[in-house]
Amino acid sequence: MSAPDTVDFGRRQLIVRREPAIALRASWRSVAVLAILGSASLVMAVLALGVGQYPVPPWQVVDVLLGRDTSFASVLVLEWRMPRILLALLIGAALGVSGAIFQALTRNPLGSPDVIGFDFGAYAGALIAIAVLGGGYYTISISAVVGGLLTAVVVYLLSYENGLAGFRLIIVGIAVAAVLSSFCQWIILKIKLHQAITASVWQQGSLNGMEWAQVLPVLGGLVVAVAILAVVGPQLPILQMGDDAAGALGVRPGRVRLVYFGIGVLLIAVAAAAAGPISFVALAAPQLARRLTGAPGVGLVSAAAMGAFLLLGSDLIALRIFAPAELPVGSVTVTLGGLYLVYLLVVQARRR
């Protein structure tokens, strides 16, 4: 056995190796947590596919998914409801990964993109599209992506000083978010009533009325992000060790940090463009996943699984809590996330 295989990682490890140089390593606890999250998400997806004005029992949903049922239930499940469920999973995963990246870069559990202010940038871009260009799904979505990216550039430039410090990034992001919030409120006061209603609905963050046309852009954004992550490799944990240690291990901290920053911004922008700004999933998912897996750092895969589980669960609550009325999923995540944020602040205060 070679020397690297004798390293003690402090817990039982699952190692998948493909010679000569590819190896994946994970603790059995992490694998178990991922399996549980995946199974729970699958069960919730089956339940959610049967929920609506025309309910479909779970056994019939399974028959439709397996191709054994081609009745009208297949139209309900595959054409009307499946896009919403897939988007909940994809957007939740994107938010979880984005939150994990920014929390790792800032080394702070509060360093999520919604706290830093990228959501407000997307909202400002959408508002400008509604007020100036007249709205439309694709116009609003593209403007939201542009707004989020421009906000990220501004925050990055203002917080960069001999490197990118995590605490400075959070403070600058909060300040930029406050300015953008005031700007958005000013636009709301100036635009027409029907435009303000459209903006208000988009601001809540909703998966209502999603169709297959909205699935492909989100899936494409995730594929691009995963491809870049595969090229960069698992260098995020090395960055968390500090720039000196990362440099000693052959990593260029500034360049790698910028790449991860871009991936995080891309994911949050794609998610906001599809469903509007959905708060607190990016904040809570990485930390909850870390607590369940017992991992020493923030894991991207576990954060993605937790984000998908949280958003799908929140959407199921939004569908059923005031049925037959459907709440925007953002209303549920804000409520649950607000409680989690209070808990997180209390824990941080006690540690000090």
Task: Give a verbal description of the structure.
With 352 residues, the protein is mainly alpha-helical. The chain is built from 15 helices and two strands. The chain has helices at 28-49, 58-65, 72-106, 113-116, 118-132, 137-159, 166-190, 193-204, 212-232, 236-239, 243-248, 253-275, 281-293, 300-320, 329-351; strands spanning 13-18, 22-27. A two-stranded antiparallel sheet has the order 1-2. Helix 5 crosses helix 12 (253-275). The protein starts with 12 loop residues before the first strand and ends with a helix. Residues 1-9 and 18-23 have low confidence and may be disordered.
List the helices and strands and how they pair.
Elements: E1 13-18, E2 22-27, H1 28-49, H2 58-65, H3 72-106, H4 113-116, H5 118-132, H6 137-159, H7 166-190, H8 193-204, H9 212-232, H10 236-239, H11 243-248, H12 253-275, H13 281-293, H14 300-320, H15 329-351
Antiparallel strand pairs: 1-2
